[in-house]
Write a structure and sequence with these properties.
single chain; eight-stranded mixed beta sheet; about 35% helix; 10 helices; alpha/beta
């Protein structure tokens, strides 16, 4: 997919450092900068931000160059992490790709489906890597959950992603800010077309965007899923519960913990047949690694750029999540039933079949 590997290796066979930069050093961009400064096989060249004071402080902290105009950063790097507001994803991403620079774009891939399609097509035309920051794919708890569910008969999923109100990411609804993570995870776990969808939501802020949304989805294979996301809940929560035929599995992404609940029928009796106690249930704890998801995600990006491999969450997968997220948002806003948006469903499922 990529030709960068030919430029990232010297003639003597020794790997050269991949030159990387960060565009946008707000909350998420700060974390990208921190992790990139620690990765092996990379050289953090510089950061760009329209906030000069913030950009200079970040550049000084990591001993790199600061660029007020992100376009000036591009000739000096092989790849960038883009962590600007969602409404700017398209313009910045297109400029980077057309400049021949590989891109890790923070989620969602873009503010609209049309913009996302242009980004995906441009990445293909320019032969550049376009990875999207659906970071929960790299969460150890999700990776272990995926392994557990491969041995179970899945019946239903329920996901909760709740946060207290914040002024961060108020340019988009809670669907594109928070729920988009669980939409991506859901599509990865179920891998079947959506055939039913209902959604409702409300706004509790002056932004005009939805701040609380719940959606129920039915899939062609019979699995059902409920997603709830909130920007106005006073307790932070990140979890997925999988209801299976023979178990119930809880994945807590905040505490990096997985618990499997199984039913048992064991009776513990005396020699004379008297029941002392009965074990009604068994809880198994799955141990996970402590690797930081962002570290794993950026390592994966660097590996894909250096080796020309397709990322696990490329533009196509992110576009699939955005299509479903946009449909959920539309139904929640307009109070539509799923059968009122058949054309959108056809487009969604056609794209899922092509990508999946």
């Amino acid at each position: 997919m990529s030709t960068v590997c030919s430029t990232n290796f010297a003639k003597n066979g020794q790997a050269k450092l991949l030159r990387v930069g960060v565009i946008g050093v707000g909350n998420m961009g700060q974390h990208h900068t921190r992790v990139l400064s620690l990765l092996k096989d990379t050289k953090l060249v510089g950061v760009a931000d329209i906030n000069v004071e913030r950009g200079l402080n970040t550049a000084s902290k990591y001993g790199v160059r600061f660029f007020e105009e992100y376009q000036d950063l591009l000739p000096h790097v092989d790849a960038v992490c883009v962590a600007v507001p969602t409404l700017q994803h398209y313009a910045v991403g297109m400029t980077c790709l057309k400049a021949g620079v590989h891109v890790l774009m923070e989620k969602p891939i873009a503010a609209s489906i049309a913009e996302a399609e242009f980004l995906v097509n441009t990445a293909a035309e320019t032969n550049r890597i376009l990875q999207v920051g659906h970071i929960e794919r790299f969460n150890p708890a999700f990776q272990e959950l995926s392994k557990v569910l491969k041995t179970e008969e899945l019946l239903a999923l329920e996901a909760h992603r709740m946060s207290p109100y914040s002024h961060r990411a108020n340019d988009v609804s809670v669907v594109l800010d928070l729920m988009i993570h669980d939409i991506d995870l859901l599509l990865e776990l179920v891998a079947a077309p959506v055939v039913k969808l209902t959604a409702s939501g409300s706004s509790a802020s002056s932004s005009g965007n939805l701040d609380y949304v719940t959606a129920t989805l039915g899939f062609a294979n019979g699995i059902i899923a409920t997603l709830t996301s909130s920007k106005v809940t006073h307790k932070k929560r990140r979890s997925i519960v999988a209801h299976c035929k023979n178990s119930l599995t809880e994945a807590d992404f905040l505490n990096n913990e997985i618990l499997i609940h199984r039913q048992t029928t064991g009776d513990y009796v005396t020699d004379y047949g008297q029941v002392l106690y009965r074990q009604d249930g068994l809880i198994e704890k799955v141990y996970t690694s402590n690797i930081e998801p962002l570290h794993a995600e950026l390592e994966h990006f660097v590996h894909c750029v250096g080796g020309g491999n397709k990322p696990s969450v490329g533009g196509e997968q992110a576009l699939k999540a955005l299509r479903l997220g946009s449909l959920i948002e539309k139904i929640a806003l307009d109070n539509l039933a799923y059968d009122s948006v058949d054309s959108e469903f056809n487009l969604l499922n056609n794209s899922m079949l092509k990508v999946g």
